């Protein structure tokens, strides 16, 4: 399985951003995943952005059916999949016209020439061959490759039908991309032989296509040189590539092990949360029980049932499913049972944009239940951080006897990055105990409380502790049904205080940059990478800009108010119309400026830098203030 | 081996005052439940009652066992999470006609088709009581209620037919006023391995008094109810009438007019639910209504057994999961 080496010139660069775009059925996601893994194995830092349509097989050749995968790999630490593309691979005209705008001037456009014909032009709704536009030659380096024809030739010896032979096309493209960026073929060769172990002729054909693509790069005069990205200087350790949903699943498994509590995962399939189920169900030997319920409501209720029985009850969904779970979440909250509710956000409202990212469920998670029903909310900042957040959520849930929400999003759920594998001994221990049984006739008090206001987790099977939980208001201590006005006031206050007190058990908020200055950028969730990179760039430009990225959204860290007060301007950047901004204004009575976007896409670093610098100039008196008050950043 | 303490009916009563209306049929069901539980030999702490919302769903508060008064219609879902993770517990679901068949219809059919080993007791009073008198999914056509002043235009749903359509393995019906029969039915349900459904005709003396008097009142019962017994012919009206299968229909015959072996012999163990379905469809006044066990099929794997069998099988083949092995599975690289 040796990988060939190039005899052409190699140019060393610090990083490359490439996007692979084709039809939904063209295998672009596979190509992207392979390129990512190979680059990670080569020691690069990587960040990815898969972008695919909600339709499984949208009409072939149409713009609606275009599926893309963007990856940045670099020899330095990176936090985003990149703004503009250094290289774009397109398999058909629809992929080209929907993606070309993102290719930087001077960037490389590789097109499957065989995918550009009259029929495809009609499907893509273009009048003529977009590859023939004169302006292209002046703007980009265009490399037209008859990939379909070359792939067919490469696999002809295996006697496959045309349809099957054409499916190897993505491996041909992969080989070419691998040549261009000096990637080893070995990891993908290993992948092919494992994936197609039961279909040796398919495995052989795919390998032949991959090698042919590489050889084409090596021999064609269109490519004068290839590019080399050296390994990044990551901190020492063993690394692997990990996706957000995978890390979340692994974090749940780790938390289950660390606490000695079997994991019960009740869920209903929904994009983009389903991959957590797919991942967890592989690990039944960790005591994981997965339950694909009949609906979202049954999913959350089953998790509560498992929690009542003393297991680690977890449910997950996306916004529409969380809406359905709201009543059950309220019950879990008043029953004060430890459990985890995960919302992998997607574009809303209603069914919205199922495969696109957004952060518009923050207020839903804060307030989307009847009555006074506060729940702790944590939010991971990157794919790898999903692991830590899952462990942390279970720690808080068990220590405080409360359902904890995790607010992830489609961008980090499907994105991937190198993850430094933790040693198990470095993970926090999560100690869980249940009150022991008794023979005595003393009535058990299920709502007695400890110093954190947590009640005991007494579970069925324990003699002498029989008690009944329910959704009706409870008498303090005994847990019996109570309609007493003062008791209701008291219990409402206690439940709120219990969540508020969590702020004393979480780390202080950290600030990237100076602890005071002109501008503080506040962000949360999956926008960490772009916000961090943008702030770094502003700092490099000499601006007094700092960054605070929140992982704890309810309660917020106890030092956050002081941090916010130490800056002349606070900018809140989020992929919604200003939900965290509302919370910060309400909680801290400070003005905040929103930088907001709801296009189903992550922030680009460039647009953030522009917005931050504009507000920074206003803060330092270099611009007309009236233009910038409550500025809503819009990108076209 | 220690011997289990002998429990009495009173040991299962909680310290809470029962707050159903005086004369409500729920009292009888509560009394029978407390009466049969000591006979089952399951410790109180291993017994859990889960209910939804409605008059009947206050039931768990009155039992000195573990319990959960959950949200409307969802009790089977809570039971699924609990029984899947704690299969050694005896789990009862207490529900009503609105709770199980209207808002909770989805969970009702799915818990039955999965054959989760729980006992569902459906208190059917054909009315919404707790919300003060609206019609329910089992109210009769034309029934005048607070929400149907000109009569209900909904066709009523039969819980037994629905359960059989979901291939439930244990389906029974009893009557609040027929206490001995009720107690026996609850006991049979508890002993069945798999999902058990017992529909109980329960009188709401405030909002739907006497709706099922034809079956509840001792004098009328003989003529309007067939008590099913496995392996016995279907006879009623003090033995003067019987049920005969003709083609795909059931018909009433005078026992004096037909040979004894013409009568339908009840087979609760028949895996094919077709005749059970015909029984479920017998309805007053054109036919007597069956009570007792319509269907009791043993040997069908339960959901709770299977979910745990898979965990055990995976552990046997792969070994107990190890985090280090998990983290380093697949491609990794080392940075020095």
* Global Rg of chain A: 27 Å
Report the uncertain regions of chain B. Answer: none
- By CATH reckoning, the class of the largest domain in chain A would read Alpha Beta
Tell me the major beta sheet of chain A: 7 strands, mixed
Greatest chain-chain contact: A-B, 74 and 62 residues
In the CATH classification, which architecture of the largest domain in chain A applies?
Answer: 3-Layer(aba) Sandwich
Separate helix tally of chain B: 11
The domain count of chain A comes to 3
Largest beta sheet: strand ordering of chain B: 2-1-3-4-6-5-11-7
Structure description:
- The complex is a heterodimer of chains A (636) and B (336).
- In chain A, helix 1 crosses helix 8 (186-195) and helix 5 (147-155) crosses helix 9 (200-219).
- In chain A, helix 15 links the parallel strand 14 and strand 15 (403-409).
- Chain A is globular and about 90 Å long.
- A 7-stranded mixed sheet of chain A has the order 11-10-12-13-15-14-20, sandwiched between helices. Chain A has a 6-stranded mixed sheet with strand order 3-4-2-5-6-7, sandwiched between helices.
- Helices cover 36% and strands 21% of the residues of chain A.
- Chain A folds into 3 domains: 9-228, Pyruvate-ferredoxin Oxidoreductase, domain 3; 240-426, Rossmann fold; 517-635, 3-Layer(aba) Sandwich (Rossmann fold), CATH 3.40.50.920.
- Chain A is α/β, with parallel strands linked by helices and 636 residues long.
- Chain A is built from 21 helices and 22 strands.
- Chain B has 336 residues and is α/β, with parallel strands linked by helices.
- Chain B has a single domain, classed as Rossmann fold (3-Layer(aba) Sandwich), CATH 3.40.50.
- Chain B contains 11 helices and 12 strands.
- In chain B, strands 2-1-3-4-6-5-11-7 form an 8-stranded mixed sheet, with helices on both faces. A 3-stranded antiparallel sheet of chain B has the order 8-9-10.
- In chain B, strand 5 (170-175), helix 6 and strand 6 form a beta-alpha-beta unit.
- The mean pLDDT of chain B is 96.
- At the A-B interface, helix 1, strand 9, helix 10, helix 12 and helix 13 of A face strand 2, helix 2, helix 4, helix 10 and helix 11 of B.
């Amino acid at each position: 399985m040796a990988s060939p080496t190039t005899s052409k010139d190699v140019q060393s660069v610090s990083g490359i951003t490439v996007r692979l775009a084709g039809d939904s059925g063209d295998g672009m996601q596979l190509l992207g995943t392979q390129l990512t893994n190979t680059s990670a194995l080569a020691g690069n830092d990587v960040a990815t952005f898969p972008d695919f349509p909600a339709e499984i097989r949208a009409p072939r050749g149409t713009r609606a059916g275009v599926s893309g995968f963007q990856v940045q790999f670099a020899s330095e630490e990176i936090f985003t999949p990149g703004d503009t593309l250094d290289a774009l691979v397109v398999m058909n005209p629809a992929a080209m016209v929907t993606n070309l705008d993102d290719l930087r001037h001077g960037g490389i456009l590789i097109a499957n020439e065989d995918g550009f014909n009259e029929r495809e032009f009609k499907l893509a709704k273009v009048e003529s061959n977009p590859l023939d536009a004169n302006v292209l030659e002046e703007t980009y380096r265009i490399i037209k490759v008859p990939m379909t024809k070359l792939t067919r030739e490469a696999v002809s010896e295996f006697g496959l039908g045309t349809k099957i032979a054409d499916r190897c096309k993505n491996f041909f493209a992969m080989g070419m991309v691998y040549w261009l960026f000096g990637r080893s073929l070995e990891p993908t060769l290993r992948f092919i032989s494992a994936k197609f172990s039961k279909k040796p002729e398919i495995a052989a054909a795919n390998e032949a296509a991959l090698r042919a693509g590489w050889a084409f790069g090596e021999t064609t005069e269109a490519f004068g040189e290839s590019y080399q990205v050296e390994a990044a200087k990551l901190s020492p350790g063993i690394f692997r590539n990990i996706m957000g949903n995978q890390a979340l699943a692994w974090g749940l498994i780790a938390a289950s092990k660390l606490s000695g509590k079997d994991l019960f995962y009740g869920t209903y399939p929904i994009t983009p949360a389903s991959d957590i189920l797919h991942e967890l169900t592989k690990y039944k030997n960790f005591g994981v029980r997965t339950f694909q319920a009949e609906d979202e409501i049954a999913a959350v209720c089953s998790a509560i049932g498992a929690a009542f029985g003393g297991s680690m009850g977890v449910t997950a969904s996306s916004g529409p499913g969380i809406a359905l779970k709201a009543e059950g979440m309220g019950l879990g909250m008043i029953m004060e049972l430890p459990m985890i509710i995960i919302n992998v956000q997607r574009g809303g409202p209603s069914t919205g944009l199922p495969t696109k990212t957004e952060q518009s469920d923050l207020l839903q998670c804060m307030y989307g239940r009847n009555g006074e029903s506060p729940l702790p909310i944590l939010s991971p900042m990157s794919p790898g951080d999903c692991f830590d957040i899952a462990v942390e959520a279970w720690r808080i849930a068990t220590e405080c006897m409360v359902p904890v929400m995790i607010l992830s999003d489609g961008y980090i759920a499907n994105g991937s990055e190198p993850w430094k594998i933790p040693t198990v001994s470095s993970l926090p221990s999560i100690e869980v105990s249940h009150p022991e049984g008794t023979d005595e006739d003393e009535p058990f008090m299920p709502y007695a409380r400890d110093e954190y206001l947590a009640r005991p987790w007494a579970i069925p099977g324990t003699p002498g502790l029989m008690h009944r939980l329910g959704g009706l208001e409870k008498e303090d201590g005994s847990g019996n049904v109570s309609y007493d006005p003062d008791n209701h006031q008291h219990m409402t206050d206690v439940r709120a205080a219990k969540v508020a007190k969590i702020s004393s058990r979480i780390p202080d908020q950290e600030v990237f940059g100076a602890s005071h200055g002109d501008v503080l950028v506040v962000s949360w969730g999956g926008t960490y990478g772009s916000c961090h990179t943008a702030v770094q760039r502003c700092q490099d430009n000499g601006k007094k800009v700092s960054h605070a990225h929140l992982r704890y959204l309810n309660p917020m860290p106890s030092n956050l108010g002081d941090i916010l007060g130490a800056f002349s301007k606070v900018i809140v950047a989020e992929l919604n119309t200003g939900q965290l901004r509302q919370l910060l204004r309400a909680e801290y009575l400070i003005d905040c400026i929103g930088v907001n976007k709801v296009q189903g896409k992550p922030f680009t670093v460039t647009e953030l830098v522009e917005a931050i610098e504009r507000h920074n100039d206003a803060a330092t008196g270099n611009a007309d203030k009236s233009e910038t008050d409550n500025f809503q950043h819009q990108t076209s | 081996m220690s011997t289990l303490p002998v429990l009495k009916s009173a040991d299962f009563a909680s310290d809470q005052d029962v707050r159903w209306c005086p004369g409500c049929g729920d009292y009888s069901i509560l009394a029978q439940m407390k009466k049969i539980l000591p006979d089952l030999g399951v410790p109180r702490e291993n017994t859990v009652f889960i209910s939804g919302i409605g008059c009947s769903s206050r039931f768990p508060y009155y039992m000195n066992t573990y319990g959960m008064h959950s949200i409307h219609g969802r009790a089977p879902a809570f039971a699924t999470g609990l029984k899947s993770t704690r299969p050694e517990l005896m789990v009862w679901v207490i529900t009503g006609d609105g709770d199980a068949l209207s808002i909770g219809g989805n969970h009702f059919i799915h818990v039955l088709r999965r054959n989760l080993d729980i006992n569902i007791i459906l208190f059917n009073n054909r009315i919404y009581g707790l919300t003060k008198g609206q019609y329910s999914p089992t109210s009769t056509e034309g029934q005048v209620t607070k929400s149907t002043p000109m009569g209900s235009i909904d066709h009523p749903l039969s819980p037994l037919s629905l359960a059989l359509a979901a291939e439930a393995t244990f389906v029974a019906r009893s009557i609040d006023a027929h206490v001995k029969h009720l107690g026996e039915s609850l006991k049979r349900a508890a002993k069945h391995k798999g999902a058990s459904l017992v529909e109980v005709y329960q009188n709401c003396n405030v909002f739907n008094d006497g709706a099922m008097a034809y079956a509840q009142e001792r004098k009328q019962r003989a003529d309007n109810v067939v008590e099913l017994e496995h392996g016995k012919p279907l006879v009623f009206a003090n033995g003067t009438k019987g049920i005969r299968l003709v083609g795909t229909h059931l018909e009433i015959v005078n026992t004096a007019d037909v040979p004894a072996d013409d009568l339908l012999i009840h087979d609760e163990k028949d895996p094919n639910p077709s005749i059970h379905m015909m029984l479920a469809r017998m309805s007053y006044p054109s036919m007597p209504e069956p009570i007792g066990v319509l269907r009791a099929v043993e040997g069908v794997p339960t959901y709770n057994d299977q979910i745990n069998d898979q965990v055990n099988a995976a552990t046997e083949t792969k070994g107990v999961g190890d985090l280090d092995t998990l983290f380093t599975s697949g491609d990794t690289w080392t940075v020095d």
